[in-house]
Q: What sequence folds into this?
Protein backbone atom coordinates (compact mmCIF):
# COMPACT_ATOMS: atom_id res chain seq x y z
CA UNK A 1 0.00 0.00 0.00
CA UNK A 2 1.53 3.30 -1.07
CA UNK A 3 2.38 5.43 1.97
CA UNK A 4 0.77 8.62 0.63
CA UNK A 5 -2.43 6.80 -0.22
CA UNK A 6 -2.60 5.15 3.20
CA UNK A 7 -2.18 8.63 4.74
CA UNK A 8 -5.11 9.90 2.68
CA UNK A 9 -7.29 7.08 3.95
CA UNK A 10 -6.27 7.60 7.59
CA UNK A 11 -6.98 11.33 7.28
CA UNK A 12 -10.44 10.61 5.84
CA UNK A 13 -11.10 8.17 8.66
CA UNK A 14 -10.03 10.70 11.28
CA UNK A 15 -12.26 13.37 9.76
CA UNK A 16 -15.23 10.99 9.93
CA UNK A 17 -14.28 9.57 13.36
CA UNK A 18 -14.05 6.03 12.03
CA UNK A 19 -12.21 3.36 13.99
CA UNK A 20 -11.89 1.12 10.93
CA UNK A 21 -12.95 0.83 7.31
CA UNK A 22 -13.81 -2.36 5.46
CA UNK A 23 -13.23 -2.36 1.69
CA UNK A 24 -14.39 -4.83 -0.93
CA UNK A 25 -12.85 -5.13 -4.42
CA UNK A 26 -13.47 -1.97 -6.41
CA UNK A 27 -11.96 1.42 -7.09
CA UNK A 28 -10.89 2.24 -3.51
CA UNK A 29 -9.49 -1.26 -3.01
CA UNK A 30 -7.45 -0.93 -6.24
CA UNK A 31 -6.34 2.61 -5.42
CA UNK A 32 -4.88 1.50 -2.09
CA UNK A 33 -3.46 -1.89 -3.04
CA UNK A 34 -3.08 -2.00 -6.81
CA UNK A 35 -5.02 -5.26 -6.67
CA UNK A 36 -7.82 -6.16 -9.05
CA UNK A 37 -9.97 -8.92 -7.61
CA UNK A 38 -13.39 -10.19 -8.70
CA UNK A 39 -16.47 -9.13 -6.78
CA UNK A 40 -18.09 -12.55 -6.88
CA UNK A 41 -19.49 -15.15 -4.48
CA UNK A 42 -16.18 -15.53 -2.62
CA UNK A 43 -15.74 -12.47 -0.35
CA UNK A 44 -12.43 -10.60 -0.32
CA UNK A 45 -12.10 -7.82 2.27
CA UNK A 46 -9.42 -5.36 3.29
CA UNK A 47 -9.71 -3.80 6.74
CA UNK A 48 -7.70 -0.75 7.82
CA UNK A 49 -7.86 0.50 11.40
CA UNK A 50 -7.44 4.05 12.63
CA UNK A 51 -3.94 3.28 13.93
CA UNK A 52 -2.86 2.17 10.45
CA UNK A 53 -2.97 -1.59 10.89
CA UNK A 54 -4.35 -3.64 8.03
CA UNK A 55 -5.73 -7.15 7.71
CA UNK A 56 -7.44 -9.01 4.91
CA UNK A 57 -9.81 -11.89 4.29
CA UNK A 58 -8.83 -13.59 1.03
CA UNK A 59 -10.09 -16.73 -0.75
CA UNK A 60 -7.32 -19.34 -0.94
CA UNK A 61 -7.43 -19.47 -4.73
CA UNK A 62 -6.56 -15.72 -4.81
CA UNK A 63 -3.48 -16.13 -2.60
CA UNK A 64 -0.95 -15.93 -5.51
CA UNK A 65 -2.51 -12.68 -6.74
CA UNK A 66 -2.53 -11.24 -3.22
CA UNK A 67 1.14 -12.09 -2.63
CA UNK A 68 2.14 -10.08 -5.70
CA UNK A 69 0.87 -6.90 -4.03
CA UNK A 70 3.46 -6.82 -1.24
CA UNK A 71 0.98 -5.37 1.26
CA UNK A 72 1.81 -5.31 4.95
CA UNK A 73 -1.33 -6.93 6.31
CA UNK A 74 -2.33 -9.94 8.34
CA UNK A 75 -4.17 -12.31 6.01
CA UNK A 76 -6.82 -14.88 6.81
CA UNK A 77 -7.09 -17.31 3.91
CA UNK A 78 -10.17 -19.47 3.55
CA UNK A 79 -11.22 -22.35 1.34
CA UNK A 80 -14.52 -23.39 -0.18
CA UNK A 81 -14.50 -26.45 2.08
CA UNK A 82 -14.43 -24.46 5.32
CA UNK A 83 -16.30 -21.37 4.10
CA UNK A 84 -15.49 -17.76 4.92
CA UNK A 85 -17.10 -17.72 8.38
CA UNK A 86 -14.01 -18.84 10.33
CA UNK A 87 -11.84 -16.27 8.52
CA UNK A 88 -14.23 -13.48 9.49
CA UNK A 89 -14.26 -14.60 13.10
CA UNK A 90 -10.45 -14.86 13.22
CA UNK A 91 -9.86 -11.42 11.79
CA UNK A 92 -12.52 -9.67 13.89
CA UNK A 93 -11.64 -11.35 17.16
CA UNK A 94 -11.72 -9.09 20.19
CA UNK A 95 -14.09 -6.49 21.54
CA UNK A 96 -15.54 -4.13 18.89
CA UNK A 97 -18.19 -2.63 21.17
CA UNK A 98 -18.75 1.07 20.55
CA UNK A 99 -16.39 1.22 17.58
CA UNK A 100 -17.39 2.94 14.34
CA UNK A 101 -16.76 0.81 11.26
CA UNK A 102 -17.15 2.41 7.83
CA UNK A 103 -18.18 0.38 4.77
CA UNK A 104 -18.73 1.16 1.10
CA UNK A 105 -22.50 1.24 0.97
CA UNK A 106 -22.65 1.31 -2.82
CA UNK A 107 -20.44 -1.77 -3.21
CA UNK A 108 -20.73 -4.08 -0.21
CA UNK A 109 -23.25 -6.87 -0.74
CA UNK A 110 -25.78 -7.94 1.85
CA UNK A 111 -24.06 -11.27 2.68
CA UNK A 112 -20.74 -9.49 3.36
CA UNK A 113 -22.48 -6.95 5.56
CA UNK A 114 -24.34 -9.65 7.47
CA UNK A 115 -21.12 -11.62 8.07
CA UNK A 116 -19.39 -8.44 9.23
CA UNK A 117 -22.17 -7.43 11.60
CA UNK A 118 -22.24 -10.93 13.08
CA UNK A 119 -18.52 -10.66 13.89
CA UNK A 120 -18.51 -7.13 15.33
CA UNK A 121 -21.43 -7.11 17.78
CA UNK A 122 -21.84 -3.78 19.46
CA UNK A 123 -20.02 -1.88 16.72
CA UNK A 124 -21.75 0.81 14.65
CA UNK A 125 -21.44 -0.21 11.00
CA UNK A 126 -21.77 3.00 8.96
CA UNK A 127 -22.15 3.69 5.25
CA UNK A 128 -19.03 5.79 4.66
CA UNK A 129 -18.82 5.32 0.89
CA UNK A 130 -18.60 9.03 0.11
CA UNK A 131 -16.11 9.75 2.90
CA UNK A 132 -13.84 6.88 1.88
CA UNK A 133 -13.97 7.85 -1.79
CA UNK A 134 -12.60 11.33 -1.06
CA UNK A 135 -9.13 9.74 -1.08
CA UNK A 136 -9.39 9.59 -4.89
CA UNK A 137 -10.57 13.17 -5.46
CA UNK A 138 -7.19 14.73 -6.29
CA UNK A 139 -5.36 12.68 -8.90
CA UNK A 140 -1.60 12.27 -8.57
CA UNK A 141 0.84 12.45 -11.53
CA UNK A 142 0.69 8.69 -12.17
CA UNK A 143 -3.11 8.76 -12.31
CA UNK A 144 -3.13 11.76 -14.63
CA UNK A 145 -0.62 10.06 -16.93
CA UNK A 146 -2.86 6.98 -17.11
CA UNK A 147 -5.89 9.14 -17.88
CA UNK A 148 -4.01 10.96 -20.64
CA UNK A 149 -3.09 7.62 -22.20
CA UNK A 150 -6.64 6.29 -21.98
CA UNK A 151 -7.96 9.46 -23.61
CA UNK A 152 -5.36 9.41 -26.39
CA UNK A 153 -6.28 5.83 -27.26
CA UNK A 154 -9.98 6.67 -27.18
CA UNK A 155 -9.55 9.59 -29.54
CA UNK A 156 -7.44 7.51 -31.91
CA UNK A 157 -10.12 4.80 -32.10
CA UNK A 158 -12.84 7.38 -32.70
CA UNK A 159 -10.87 9.17 -35.42
CA UNK A 160 -10.32 5.91 -37.28
CA UNK A 161 -13.93 4.80 -36.89
CA UNK A 162 -15.55 7.91 -38.36
CA UNK A 163 -13.45 7.56 -41.51
CA UNK A 164 -15.65 4.58 -42.42
CA UNK A 165 -19.09 6.08 -41.67
CA UNK A 166 -21.44 6.33 -44.63
CA UNK A 167 -25.14 6.89 -45.25
CA UNK A 168 -27.14 3.63 -44.90
CA UNK A 169 -24.73 2.06 -42.40
CA UNK A 170 -26.45 0.63 -39.33
CA UNK A 171 -25.60 1.62 -35.78
CA UNK A 172 -24.55 -1.96 -35.13
CA UNK A 173 -22.13 -1.93 -38.08
CA UNK A 174 -20.58 1.30 -36.87
CA UNK A 175 -20.26 -0.02 -33.32
CA UNK A 176 -18.53 -3.15 -34.64
CA UNK A 177 -16.01 -0.92 -36.41
CA UNK A 178 -15.56 1.10 -33.21
CA UNK A 179 -14.85 -2.06 -31.23
CA UNK A 180 -12.36 -3.26 -33.83
CA UNK A 181 -10.50 0.04 -33.78
CA UNK A 182 -10.58 0.06 -29.98
CA UNK A 183 -8.97 -3.37 -29.80
CA UNK A 184 -6.30 -2.27 -32.25
CA UNK A 185 -5.13 0.51 -29.89
CA UNK A 186 -3.80 -1.97 -27.32
CA UNK A 187 -5.89 -0.47 -24.53
CA UNK A 188 -7.12 -2.48 -21.54
CA UNK A 189 -10.56 -2.47 -23.12
CA UNK A 190 -13.75 -0.48 -22.91
CA UNK A 191 -14.24 1.88 -19.99
CA UNK A 192 -18.01 1.30 -20.20
CA UNK A 193 -20.53 0.01 -22.75
CA UNK A 194 -20.42 2.49 -25.65
CA UNK A 195 -23.28 4.49 -27.10
CA UNK A 196 -23.56 4.65 -30.89
CA UNK A 197 -26.83 6.38 -31.72
CA UNK A 198 -28.03 7.64 -35.10
CA UNK A 199 -30.92 9.88 -36.12
CA UNK A 200 -33.82 9.89 -33.64
CA UNK A 201 -31.99 7.46 -31.34
CA UNK A 202 -29.46 10.23 -30.56
CA UNK A 203 -32.18 11.84 -28.43
CA UNK A 204 -31.94 8.87 -26.04
CA UNK A 205 -29.23 9.62 -23.47
CA UNK A 206 -27.94 6.04 -23.26
CA UNK A 207 -29.18 4.42 -26.45
CA UNK A 208 -27.92 1.00 -27.52
CA UNK A 209 -26.73 0.36 -31.06
CA UNK A 210 -29.35 -1.44 -33.13
CA UNK A 211 -30.46 -1.94 -36.70
CA UNK A 212 -31.27 1.71 -37.44
CA UNK A 213 -29.59 2.76 -40.71
CA UNK A 214 -28.26 6.26 -41.11
CA UNK A 215 -30.09 8.61 -43.42
CA UNK A 216 -28.76 11.72 -45.07
CA UNK A 217 -29.00 14.64 -42.63
CA UNK A 218 -28.98 12.45 -39.50
CA UNK A 219 -26.72 13.06 -36.56
CA UNK A 220 -24.53 10.27 -35.21
CA UNK A 221 -23.62 10.39 -31.51
CA UNK A 222 -20.72 8.48 -29.97
CA UNK A 223 -20.27 8.26 -26.19
CA UNK A 224 -17.46 5.90 -25.27
CA UNK A 225 -14.05 5.52 -23.70
CA UNK A 226 -11.14 3.14 -23.29
CA UNK A 227 -9.19 2.22 -20.17
CA UNK A 228 -5.51 2.26 -19.30
CA UNK A 229 -4.12 0.92 -16.00
CA UNK A 230 -7.67 0.99 -14.67
CA UNK A 231 -8.28 4.66 -15.50
CA UNK A 232 -11.17 5.46 -17.80
CA UNK A 233 -11.70 7.96 -20.58
CA UNK A 234 -15.17 9.30 -21.39
CA UNK A 235 -15.76 11.33 -24.54
CA UNK A 236 -18.86 12.24 -26.52
CA UNK A 237 -18.91 13.71 -30.00
CA UNK A 238 -21.89 14.25 -32.30
CA UNK A 239 -21.44 14.25 -36.09
CA UNK A 240 -23.67 14.96 -39.07
CA UNK A 241 -24.04 12.37 -41.81
CA UNK A 242 -24.11 13.42 -45.45
CA UNK A 243 -25.57 16.87 -44.75
CA UNK A 244 -26.51 19.22 -41.92
CA UNK A 245 -29.73 21.22 -41.76
CA UNK A 246 -29.46 24.85 -40.62
CA UNK A 247 -31.77 24.27 -37.63
CA UNK A 248 -29.68 21.30 -36.48
CA UNK A 249 -26.48 23.29 -36.85
CA UNK A 250 -27.98 26.00 -34.65
CA UNK A 251 -28.78 23.40 -31.96
CA UNK A 252 -25.22 22.11 -32.24
CA UNK A 253 -23.73 25.58 -31.86
CA UNK A 254 -25.63 26.18 -28.62
CA UNK A 255 -24.26 22.94 -27.13
CA UNK A 256 -20.78 23.79 -28.39
CA UNK A 257 -20.92 27.20 -26.72
CA UNK A 258 -22.12 25.65 -23.46
CA UNK A 259 -19.24 23.16 -23.58
CA UNK A 260 -16.74 25.94 -24.21
CA UNK A 261 -18.22 28.02 -21.39
CA UNK A 262 -17.88 25.11 -18.98
CA UNK A 263 -14.29 24.42 -19.96
CA UNK A 264 -13.41 28.09 -19.68
CA UNK A 265 -15.14 28.55 -16.30
CA UNK A 266 -13.67 25.54 -14.46
CA UNK A 267 -11.07 26.53 -11.86
CA UNK A 268 -9.97 25.68 -8.32
CA UNK A 269 -12.17 27.13 -5.61
CA UNK A 270 -15.32 27.17 -7.73
CA UNK A 271 -18.13 25.07 -6.27
CA UNK A 272 -19.03 22.09 -8.44
CA UNK A 273 -22.68 23.13 -8.23
CA UNK A 274 -21.85 26.64 -9.41
CA UNK A 275 -20.12 25.26 -12.50
CA UNK A 276 -23.28 23.33 -13.31
CA UNK A 277 -25.35 26.47 -12.83
CA UNK A 278 -23.12 28.33 -15.29
CA UNK A 279 -23.43 25.69 -18.00
CA UNK A 280 -27.03 24.65 -17.45
CA UNK A 281 -28.03 28.29 -16.98
CA UNK A 282 -26.64 29.06 -20.43
CA UNK A 283 -28.66 26.23 -21.98
CA UNK A 284 -31.78 27.28 -20.09
CA UNK A 285 -31.33 30.80 -21.40
CA UNK A 286 -31.27 29.61 -25.01
CA UNK A 287 -34.18 28.91 -27.32
CA UNK A 288 -33.91 25.26 -26.33
CA UNK A 289 -34.59 25.46 -22.59
CA UNK A 290 -37.07 22.58 -22.76
CA UNK A 291 -34.46 20.27 -24.27
CA UNK A 292 -32.12 20.22 -21.22
CA UNK A 293 -32.13 16.78 -19.61
CA UNK A 294 -29.10 16.21 -17.35
CA UNK A 295 -26.36 17.72 -15.19
CA UNK A 296 -23.12 19.13 -16.60
CA UNK A 297 -20.78 16.29 -15.64
CA UNK A 298 -19.24 13.81 -13.24
CA UNK A 299 -15.86 12.85 -11.83
CA UNK A 300 -13.66 10.42 -13.70
CA UNK A 301 -10.88 8.04 -12.73
CA UNK A 302 -10.90 4.39 -11.66
CA UNK A 303 -14.68 4.66 -11.96
CA UNK A 304 -16.55 6.12 -14.90
CA UNK A 305 -18.78 8.08 -12.49
CA UNK A 306 -17.25 9.31 -9.24
CA UNK A 307 -16.82 12.51 -7.25
CA UNK A 308 -16.82 15.37 -7.92
CA UNK A 309 -20.28 15.50 -9.50
CA UNK A 310 -20.86 18.68 -11.48
CA UNK A 311 -24.46 19.24 -10.56
CA UNK A 312 -26.54 21.87 -8.82
CA UNK A 313 -26.51 21.75 -5.04
CA UNK A 314 -23.00 20.31 -4.72
CA UNK A 315 -21.08 22.76 -2.54
CA UNK A 316 -17.73 20.96 -2.78
CA UNK A 317 -15.12 23.35 -4.17
CA UNK A 318 -13.07 22.13 -7.10
CA UNK A 319 -9.40 21.56 -6.30
CA UNK A 320 -6.23 20.95 -8.26
CA UNK A 321 -6.09 17.32 -9.35
CA UNK A 322 -9.84 16.89 -9.81
CA UNK A 323 -10.79 15.24 -13.10
CA UNK A 324 -14.35 15.44 -14.37
CA UNK A 325 -16.44 15.73 -17.51
CA UNK A 326 -18.12 18.73 -19.10
CA UNK A 327 -20.92 17.28 -21.21
CA UNK A 328 -23.81 19.62 -21.98
CA UNK A 329 -26.52 18.25 -24.23
CA UNK A 330 -29.82 19.15 -25.82
CA UNK A 331 -32.38 16.54 -26.86
CA UNK A 332 -35.52 16.76 -29.00
CA UNK A 333 -37.43 13.51 -28.40
CA UNK A 334 -37.79 11.21 -31.41
CA UNK A 335 -35.76 13.56 -33.62
CA UNK A 336 -32.26 14.62 -32.56
CA UNK A 337 -29.83 14.79 -29.65
CA UNK A 338 -26.56 16.74 -29.45
CA UNK A 339 -23.94 16.21 -26.73
CA UNK A 340 -20.28 17.29 -26.59
CA UNK A 341 -18.22 15.85 -23.74
CA UNK A 342 -14.68 16.62 -22.63
CA UNK A 343 -12.53 15.37 -19.75
CA UNK A 344 -11.15 18.20 -17.62
CA UNK A 345 -8.25 18.43 -15.16
CA UNK A 346 -8.27 21.20 -12.57
CA UNK A 347 -4.84 22.83 -12.26
CA UNK A 348 -3.43 25.25 -9.69
CA UNK A 349 -4.55 28.24 -11.77
CA UNK A 350 -7.44 27.01 -13.90
CA UNK A 351 -8.31 23.87 -15.83
CA UNK A 352 -6.98 21.88 -18.76
CA UNK A 353 -8.98 19.83 -21.23
CA UNK A 354 -7.38 16.39 -21.41
CA UNK A 355 -9.48 15.67 -24.49
CA UNK A 356 -8.47 17.38 -27.71
CA UNK A 357 -10.77 15.84 -30.30
CA UNK A 358 -12.22 18.63 -32.55
CA UNK A 359 -15.52 20.10 -31.39
CA UNK A 360 -16.59 22.01 -34.50
CA UNK A 361 -19.47 20.47 -36.49
CA UNK A 362 -18.30 17.80 -38.93
CA UNK A 363 -20.24 16.15 -41.79
CA UNK A 364 -19.25 12.51 -42.33
CA UNK A 365 -19.49 10.48 -45.50
A:
Amino acid sequence: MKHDRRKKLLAAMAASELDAVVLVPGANFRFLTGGVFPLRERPTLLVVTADGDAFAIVPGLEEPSWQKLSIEADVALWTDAEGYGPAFRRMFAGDWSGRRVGVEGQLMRAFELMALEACVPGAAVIDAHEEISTIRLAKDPDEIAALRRAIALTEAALAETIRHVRVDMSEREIQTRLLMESMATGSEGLAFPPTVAGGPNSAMSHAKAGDYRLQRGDVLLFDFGLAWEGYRADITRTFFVGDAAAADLDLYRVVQEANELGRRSARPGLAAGTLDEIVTGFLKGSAYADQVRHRTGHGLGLEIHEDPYIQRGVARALQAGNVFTIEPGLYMPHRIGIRIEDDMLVTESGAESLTSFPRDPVVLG
The chain has a mean pLDDT of 96. The longest strand covers residues 235-241.
